[in-house]
Amino acid sequence: MSKFTGTGVALVTPFNRDNGIDRGALKSIVAHCTEGGVEYLVVLGTTAESATLTREEKEIVKQTVIKANAGKLPLVLGVGGNNTDEVIRELQGTDLSAFDAILSVSPYYNKPTQEGIYQHFKAVAKASPVPVILYNVPGRTASNILPSTVLRLAREVDNIIGIKEAAGDIVQAMRLIKDKPEGFLVISGDDMVTLPIVLAGGAGVISVIGQGFPREFSDMVRYGLEGNAGEAYMLHYKLMDAIDMAFEQGNPAGIKSVLHALELANGAVRLPLVKADKDLETRISGFVEKNIKVV
User: Fold this and answer.
1) Quick check: is 111 catalytic?
2) pLDDT reported for residue 93
């Protein structure tokens, strides 16, 4: 099995009262995820608010996670953008020795054609010294990587090993699973449809809610991979309300409120995002208190 089969979590970047990086909280979240049984960690993805971090802050986040992880779990680094040459320069200027793969989002805002998306990822994969996981999230990029383009990349570019599929379209995910080459990973990018995708033959998930409830969510995915739908759906239904609340007012405001309720970090986010409101915080705290034991 691939080291990216199962549950990966897209780590948040916790902030302190001065709006700086809270390294202590980040270490605690890494430990929480590791002890909770997740299979790998994703650093500096969208959930990390990477768009609002300086280059120096990104380095702090990377080094904090590397040190806290201490080689226990595989690490994936978010490296993507809508300027192909800049993404390549970032890859060439980044020490990736501690990372097992990169997660690279489809170019946003520019709205490239499918051929443009193909050529972008072909160039990125050629420049990357580690394997590449594509990231399709049309709700953020304003363009969808069609299955035909994903399959073309999967077959023609050896360094592209999988896709985080977050189009919110279970049929699209099933088309990828049906036609993908052997060994290519179709990874859910939507927490709510993770289990159906896994049961259909997907490799797992890169999750947001999984860092709040790593034991329950990773167990759900493992049950799904084993074909034990009954046990898996028991956990899925237990977590459904939490997943809804985590995304109700946007990501990562919701998951940071979960982490605050778990006493792992505060709920602060950076503008233009704003933290979850009091009503949502109260409902999330109530869910945690009722369903999850805070250690």
Assistant:
1) no
2) 95
User: Distance between CA 91 and CA 103 in Å, rounded?
Assistant: 12
Number of domains in the chain: 1
Residue 31 belongs to some domain of the structure: yes
Note whether residue 282 is domain-resident.
Answer: no
Range(s) of the domain holding residue 88: 6-229
* CATH number for 182: 3.20.20.70
| Residues 140 and 46 sit within 8 Å (Cβ to Cβ) | yes
- Residue 77: which H helix or E strand, with range? strand 75-78
Instruction: Note the pTM of the prediction, 2 decimals.
Output: 0.97
Q: Is residue 280 situated within a structural domain?
A: no
Closest CA to 3 of 133, 129, 91: 133
- Confidence check: pLDDT of 294 > 70: no
Kindly name the residue from 40, 118, 135, 223 that is annotated as catalytic: 135
Q: Say which of 62, 164, 256, 275 is annotated catalytic.
A: 164
Contact 121, 160 (CB under 8 A): yes
Share of the chain above pLDDT 70, in %: 99
Identify whether 237 is a catalytic site residue. Answer: no
For the stretch 31-60, pLDDT in tens is 999 999 999 999 999 999 999 999 999 999
